[in-house]
Design goal:
This protein is an alpha+beta fold. It is built from eight helices and seven strands; from the N terminus they run αβββαβααβαββααα. Helices cover about 40% and strands about 10% of the residues. It comes from Neorhizobium alkalisoli.
Length: about 250
């Protein structure tokens, strides 16, 4: 007797929208040149406890990812990597640990964008407050200087998750960056400004002239003033999705 496999349940409306938003984030990252071949990974929690999450399938180019392509995984499922549709090993190592241990990380974006990664390769990878974008990260970024190689082992993922703590942005020395947020829109806006801030830092360093670093008081004031623009993150992301809808709406399939 042949036994037919039980089909996966269709995603509910909330999960469907989350899939669309995360797929849009992949497409936008590729357009911005933040991706790295078929590496790097984004995830978004779909359960109340955060342990069930969406993540990109193994070795799929960001520019081609659709909402329906995203894998739904359980961070506590020890058999995940034994399955034929297993995700990239580093995606599982990093994102399963984040979704097990960091409740505020409903969305996690891990990237190696050019300027932030160049900054991560410096002995001091911190972002100095030299303009309003760089000041956004004043005293608001974790810095991880304990790179342990490509994060394919569970222990490396656990260490990265522990480094996040209560932060939303992590500069990963000798590696790249990770941002976490309650929503895809907020995570996208964060990585956008993080890469802009890193670009400003690298360009300023390249002049060879001394940096004009704000006082701690002005830097803190400027960072706090970003809170008044919190709603702009959602408008930013919606505008970017409008561009995708006009030029290539296939991300939502």
């Amino acid at each position: 007797m042949n036994v037919m496999a039980t089909p996966s349940p269709a995603p509910d409306a909330d999960e469907r929208q989350l899939r669309i938003d995360l797929a849009a984030c992949f497409r936008l990252a590729a357009r911005a040149g933040w991706h790295e071949a078929v590496a790097n990974h984004f995830s978004a929690a779909i359960s109340a406890d955060g342990k069930r999450f969406l993540v990109n399938p193994r070795w799929r180019h960001f520019s081609l990812i659709r909402a329906s392509d995203l894998l739904a995984l359980d961070a506590d499922d020890k058999e995940t990597m034994a399955r034929p549709d297993a995700p990239d090993p580093s995606a599982w190592s990093i994102h399963s640990a984040i979704h097990r241990h960091v409740p505020h990380a409903r969305v996690a974006l891990h990237l190696h964008p050019p300027y932030a990664t160049a900054l991560a390769g410096l002995k001091d990878p911190s972002i100095k407050p030299i303009d309003q974008n760089t000041a956004r990260y004043f005293n608001r970024m974790a810095i991880d200087l304990s790179f342990g190689g490509i994060a394919t082992e569970e222990s490396e993922g656990e260490r990265i998750a522990a480094t996040i703590g209560n932060h939303s942005t992590v500069m990963m020395g000798n590696h790249g960056v990770t941002v976490v947020a309650p929503t895809v829109a907020e995570a996208f806006d964060n990585i956008y400004y993080l890469e802009r801030a890193a670009q400003t830092m690298i360009l300023a360093y390249s002049t060879g002239q001394p940096l004009s670093v704000m006082s701690d008081e002005i830097a803190e004031q400027t960072a706090a003033e970003w809170d008044a623009y919190a709603g702009a993150a959602f408008a930013h992301f919606e505008e970017m999705k409008r561009i995708l809808d006009r030029e290539d709406p296939s991300y939502a399939e």
